[in-house]
Amino acid sequence: MLKEFAADLHIHTCLSPCADSEMIPPNILNMAKLLGTKIIGISDHNSAKNLQAMIEASRNYEILVLPGIEVQSKEEVHVLCLFERLKEALEFQDFIYSHLPQKKNYPQYFGHQYVVDAQGNVKGEEERLLIASTDLSVDEILKNAYKLGGIVIPAHIDRNTFGILGQLGFIPEYLRVDAVEFSKNISLKEARGKFPFIFDRFPVIFSSDAHCLKDMVFQKTYFLLKEPTFEEIKKALIGIGGRGVVLRE
Ligand SMILES: [Zn+2]
Ligand SMILES: [Zn+2]
Q1: CA–CA separation, 235 vs 203, rounded Å?
Q2: Nearest bound ligand to CA 9?
Q3: What is the pLDDT of residue 157?
Q4: Of 155, 206, 152, nearest to 184 (Cα)?
Q5: How many Cβ atoms are within 10 Å of 14's Cβ, its own excluded?
Q6: Which of 125, 194, 206, 244 has the fewest CB atoms nearer than 10 Å to its CB?
Q7: Ligand nearest to the CA of 12
Q8: 21 vs 13: CA distance, rounded Å
Q9: Given this model, what pLDDT does residue 39 score?
């Protein structure tokens, strides 16, 4: 028996310098609960440091938290990488950190990079600047995320900056991505009209890319699944056994 689960696979926490300090685990989870979002992906820029707190906090909710990272490639493309467990996400973070420039964050210019606990108390700040390009190509990011069993989705492809179409002009045939993501800046109708070739080629999701709580209101993607698990989402993106992605305006 398949059921629909509302999903938002791209949400930032207060670790991302560009995100609001209100983006702490209890607030994000309470907002998701309020909205009826059953599956959320947490994906800070180039880092996994708030994932443990998010997963710990989610134990009190009926919400599946997918640990992820939004990686910035050397071509300045944002790629959403989501994993089944924290372990893989942390392993992926080590790999990403070894390819991220050793630049210091200046909070007064870029914003704070808060590392928090499950209650949202600030434990410290990540000193390394997270909004920077890694020296990895999209292809290298993909291969390494797949090695860890991840789901890989080029982010906000409708955006000129940091979107794969804006940066590369196209999605190369050899890139075996699981889906592509549209941002909250484009309606489903507009996306279908402007990017029909994308809908023909890939499973499509829409995400909020929330940097503050009110961004999370944006909700268009539903997964048709047996139960809300990482494996079921993988199957839905392939379309196994009637599972799939349902998009609503
Ligand atoms: Zn992005
Ligand atoms: Zn983002």
Answers
A1: 12
A2: 2
A3: 97
A4: 206
A5: 26
A6: 194
A7: 2
A8: 8
A9: 98
Domains and CATH numbers, the chain: 3-247 (3.20.20.140)
Q: Rounded to whole angstroms, how far apart are CA atoms 102 and 60? A: 37
pLDDT digit string, tens, across residues 210-248: 999 999 998 899 999 999 999 999 999 999 999 999 999
Q: Note the pLDDT tens digit of each residue in 143-166.
A: 999 999 999 999 999 999 999 999
**Distance spanning both ends of the chain, measured CA to CA:** 25
Q: Do residues 182 and 191 touch, judged by C-beta distance below 8 A?
A: yes
pLDDT at res. 79: 98
Q: Please tell me whether the overall predicted TM-score, pTM, comes out greater than 0.90 for this model.
A: yes
Token pair of 196 as six digits: 């029909």
Span 136-148, mean pLDDT? 97
Decide if 14 contacts 232 (C-beta within 8 A).
Answer: no
Count helices and strands in the chain by DSSP H and E runs:
9, 11
Using CA atoms, how far apart are residues 75 and 98, in angstroms rounded to an integer? 17
CA–CA separation, 195 vs 205, rounded Å?
13
What spacing in Å lies between the alpha carbon of 10 and ligand 2's midpoint? 6
**151 CA from centroid of ligand 2 (Å):** 16
The alpha carbon of 242 and the centre of ligand 1 are apart by a number of angstroms equal to: 31
Residue 33 CB-density burial (10 A; 0-12 exposed, 13-18 middle, 19+ buried): middle
Q: 113, 111, 107: which is closest to 46 by C-alpha?
A: 113
**Per-residue pLDDT, 104:** 96
Give the pLDDT confidence score for residue 108 in this predicted structure: 94
- The number of the ligand nearest the C-alpha atom of 133 reads 1
